[in-house]
Write a structure and sequence with these properties.
The chain has 14 helices and six strands. By secondary structure, it is mostly helical. Strand 5 and strand 6 form a beta hairpin. Helix 2 packs across helix 3, helix 10 crosses helix 13 and helix 11 runs parallel beside helix 13.
Length: 377
């Protein structure tokens, strides 16, 4: 073998060694790439799993503040998901949409819903299907009919561990009231600041039981819910109010007088008829609860000396309605104010049993007083 052949063999051998080295490098690179792909895929899978798991949990477990969410008629599951996500009720619209499909849920209703970021997806779905809040209320406040603002302040204070005087003071704070007026401008009109008004919100906090889903709701939230209820109730009577030229303020004022005079056994529309009959002939309403309101104190009886109290709220001294409501009124009294019975009565009085007797003349009324009640001193 000559030198030339040896050189050629040597070259081939070197090339083979080089190719073997390159093959090992390629194999290593492929192994590293495959390992990276596996790791990335695993990370993506784990990340995706954790992401979906997180999206299936409440948007904010600690936020129990109820929000009103409006679901329009004809909304698809996708539309509903987007609305809920935009308002922070759920974390992810797409995940919620797929969750609904996976669970084969349907039958969602259009309407206004009270939902909170702390609600679970099953709770939200149940609410959307039933139209009801499925969360357990953290606080319930019941405001009975015929309560005055100062009494309501005490009820709120007792339920929220606040000082009654502080609550009452805030309920009459102009800045506080103006915030509420911005929310309900059609309800809280300039009439609440009318001449001789004692307390602007008197009569506007509707008697009902209110559920709150926060442990410590603010006074603004509590009062806002009460005003919302009043606004909703009055909205049902708007046509009648317009027809009979009743403003919110006038209706609530008359209804409060009926509420305060009524007993459990009385037909409020009859009391309403007496008030209307008196106003028609320009006769003072002469209703005792207005005297007590003017005095600012509770009494079991009203005496003749009490009738002399000097106040725009005293309907023995002033004709027509009081400057504003003297208490809150329920729907029965509101309806009675709008639809008084037809009668010729100008007088009424409640007996010791709660029955109410009526009279057309003062002589008849005095006879009823002598018969049914003890004379005033």
């Amino acid at each position: 073998m000559d030198q030339k052949d040896k050189t050629k063999i040597q070259y081939i051998r070197e090339r083979m060694l080089e190719q073997q080295g390159e093959a090992r490098i390629v194999r290593k690179i492929i192994m590293i790439v495959m390992l990276v792909i596996v790791v990335v895929a695993a990370c993506v899978g784990i990340g995706g799993y954790l992401y979906v798991q997180s999206a299936l949990k409440p948007a904010d477990p600690d936020n129990q503040k109820i929000q009103e969410v409006e679901i329009p008629i004809g909304s698809s599951v996708g539309n509903i998901s987007t609305i809920l996500a935009d308002q922070g009720i759920i974390k992810n619209a797409k995940i919620f949409k797929y969750y609904i499909k996976f669970k084969n849920e349907s039958g969602f209703q259009a309407g206004s819903y009270k939902l909170a970021p702390s609600m679970t997806l099953p709770e939200i779905i149940k609410s959307l299907k039933t139209g009801k809040v499925v969360m357990e209320a953290q606080l319930k406040i019941t405001i009975p009919e015929g309560k005055q603002l100062i009494q309501i302040a005490h009820i709120i204070a007792e339920k929220t561990d606040k000082d009654p005087e502080d609550v009452f003071k805030q309920l009459n704070d102009k800045n506080f009231i103006n915030k509420l007026r911005a929310k309900y401008p059609d309800l809280l009109t300039d009439e609440i600041y009318g001449k001789n008004i004692l307390y602007p919100l008197e009569g506007y906090l509707f008697p009902a039981t209110y559920d709150f889903y926060e442990e410590k709701p603010s006074l603004e939230l509590i009062v806002t819910e009460m005003l919302k209820k009043t606004d909703g109730v009055l909205a049902e009577y708007k046509d009648e109010m317009n027809e009979k030229q009743f403003s919110n303020h006038k209706l609530l004022t008359l209804a409060s007088l009926i509420e305060e005079e009524a007993t459990a056994k009385v037909d409020r529309d009859m009391i309403s008829s007496v008030f209307f009959n008196r106003m028609k002939i320009d006769m003072p309403l002469q209703t005792d609860p207005t005297v007590l309101y003017a005095k600012g104190q509770h009494q079991d009886k009203v005496f003749y000396k009490d009738l002399e109290v000097n106040s725009p709220y005293n309907t023995y001294k002033n004709k027509g309605l009081t400057p504003g409501p003297i208490a809150n009124a329920g729907t029965t009294s509101i309806e009675a104010a709008l639809n008084p019975a037809t009668s010729d009565y100008l007088y009424f009085l409640a007996t010791s049993t709660g029955e109410v007797v009526y009279a057309k003349t003062l002589d008849q009324h005095n006879q009823n007083k002598a018969k049914f009640i003890t004379n005033k001193k």
